[in-house]
Amino acid sequence: MTPVGPRSGPAGATALSPRWRAEAELFGPAPVIFASLGGPRHVVETANSAFFALVGSGRAETGVPIAELIPDLARQGLLTRLGEVYRTGIPHRARDSRLIPGEREGAHGRFFDLTCEPRRSAMGRIDGVVLIAVDTTAYRDTQLLAAEQRALLEQIVREAPLQEILGGMAKAIEDLSPEMIVSVLLTDPDQRRLLHGAAPGLPAFYNAAIDGIRIAEGVGACGTAAYRRAPVFTADIATDPLWEDYRAVAKRAGLAACWSTPVLGTGGRLLGTFAMYHRTPRTPTPKDLALGSAFTRIAALAIERHESLAAGRAARERENAAREDLAFVLDASTAIAREQHYADSLRRLARLTVPELAPLCAVYVMEGGRCTRIAFAAESPADEDLLTASRWYDEADRAVAGVIASGTTETGLLGSFPGAEPGGRGTGYMCVPLTARGCTFGVLALLGVDRDPDSHVVALAEELAGRAALNADNARQFTYRVRLAQDLQAGLLPPQLPHVPGAALAASYHPAGEGLDVGGDFYDVFPLPGDRWAVMIGDVCGHGAVAATTTGMVRHTARAVARLVEDPVSVVAAINDALEEHTAGQDLFVSLVYGELRRVPSGLAVSLMRAGHVPPLVRRADRSVERLVPPGMLLGIGCESVGSPARVELRPGDSLVLVTDGITEARSPQGEQFGEGRLTDALTTFPAAAPGAVTLLESVTTAVTAFTDDTSRDDQAALVVTAV
């Protein structure tokens, strides 16, 4: 230890009082700095070893003014304070005063709690100043370190961007150790390279040079530390073989030393590296190692938190994307399902895929052994011209044919795809089979897509194509059934009404719903011997094949029997007998109005049989309406008597109106029946002049359509005969 007594000094130096000599002995071995300064020049008369260690440069001598030992004290204001204490006798105390104590390592400045007290002689005269300084640099650095750590942890908790956290961490370390430069590198997803994370103190060209370095032995300090999973200390970059490939750029950046530590996460997973650079060759101090260890842990926490948040966001994005995909598929398939016809459903499919799945789309189907394009869509009308470009049309057809043959999705390139210049639309195609009931009947061709479509897009296209194929197949079956029902129904009605002398005829038939089933309503007009004409309207209960065969049997029986007899009662009785034989054991019946017309000088003589049907109406030329209700039960229910006929004469302008119960029992959206009253009103909404058969029929059908809002739930048939 440096002696507390003076080695040499100027003549007349005052000896220390017992009190200050005791203080000097007390502080001798302590980290507290002590110096007893004499006279107005503040000559160092005695001091402990901590004082001389602070001065440095081997200048441990007494009898020298403190200003000569530490020349910078005048500039820092300490000599002024010492002079004030010497002159006034008032002690001076200060906390966390920053001083640059001398020429030594770390002479960038330290912090002290200072005490300057006057020293008095035995006579009470001030003869010097006692300087006591407690080095608070470590304590202050510890506080700053804790504060920076808290700030960084708060940033992590509030989910600040990773670059902001790492940049703040680097800045905090550089503030605590100004001679240090910090860099953080992050591993790439493949764990093969290190990417730039944060290095605010390094030049941009250096960050660019090391961005993406390999994780391997011998690749600088950082690449090697990441490879070894252990710290790597390079005391002199100029001579370390690890820096062979990066020595020049490090020299250009003014870097001479580097200590790199791997940043490891949970389970030892490599997250990146934490590096501290110096501009002079050196090895790390315990303080450096402590700083590196503390901030490496924070870096690991920040990176893992960032990855967790990124994974959560990615999961939410995938969930949202899946939800959007599901909504798209559901909305699209619902829209396609609304199309009741085969071709319309496929056209809707093409329109819905653009631009969600591709900029161009075409739909192909097999028809008559040939592959035919049935629909197409493009982002703009101008793009539609591309779909007919002969340069690639044959190429696309070959791809489509292959998919129809294999029943599997195919992707590839269209070598001569229009508009495929660099930077333009993609040159790829994706052909997805349209398969229903185990049979591939068409292809959804998405054109202008990426060269390698994302598997997500492929799956979405296949899901939509599968649903669309089933809907299209159902629409095709629906179309077929409607056409079949229409053809069958047409066979049960007269192809056209005949010309009846002295009469004008009009008739209509409207099937219920979409016309999928053959209805039971029918009408017929045919000639009989003796210048007579038969008129008939009826309703077979039910729909479908049974109703169709029963309707046909009733019409053919009536046509066959009426030519052999001249009595309407006999015709209806024959129909009843045929029905009972035809429907034995079945709950089946028929309502019917059968009549015969004969021309007479005054007009038309009509004889009518009614079998449980809606009563016939006679609309007179004077707008009055008569309701004919001859007795008669339903046919086919086992009754032996079929009733008796009603006879009426139609003068010119009078009309016979026959309808089925589909008209009188038609209901409004509120559930109210149309009824015979509204039917009568429809027949009388004309001026006194007698309307023709066609006008009356149109009045009835228009009134029913308006009343029901065109939502008929039953077949509707009407027949009007007007005497002329």
Number of helices: 20
What is the 3D shape?
rod-shaped
- Give the strand tally: 27
Instruction: Quote the beta fraction.
Output: 25-35%
- Main beta sheet: strand number and arrangement? 6 strands, antiparallel
Computed over alpha carbons, the radius of gyration is 54 Å
- Mean pLDDT figure: 84
Short description:
The protein is α+β, with helices and mostly antiparallel strands and 724 residues long. Strands 3-2-1-6-5-4 form a six-stranded antiparallel beta sheet. A six-stranded antiparallel beta sheet has the order 9-8-7-12-11-10. A five-stranded antiparallel beta sheet has the order 14-13-17-16-15, with helices on both faces.
Secondary-structure blueprint of this entry?
Layout: H1 18-27, E1 33-38, E2 43-47, H2 49-55, E3 64-65, H3 66-69, H4 73-76, H5 78-88, E4 92-99, E5 110-120, E6 126-135, H6 137-157, H7 162-176, E7 180-187, E8 193-198, H8 204-210, E9 213-214, H9 220-228, E10 232-234, H10 247-252, E11 257-264, E12 270-278, H11 286-338, H12 342-353, E13 360-367, E14 370-378, H13 381-384, H14 390-406, E15 410-413, E16 428-436, E17 439-449, H15 455-492, E18 503-510, E19 521-528, E20 532-540, H16 544-562, H17 568-582, E21 590-600, E22 603-611, E23 617-619, E24 625-627, E25 646-650, E26 655-659, H18 661-664, H19 675-683, H20 693-708, E27 716-723
Helix pairs in contact: 6-7, 6-11, 7-11, 11-12, 11-15, 12-15, 15-16, 16-17, 19-20
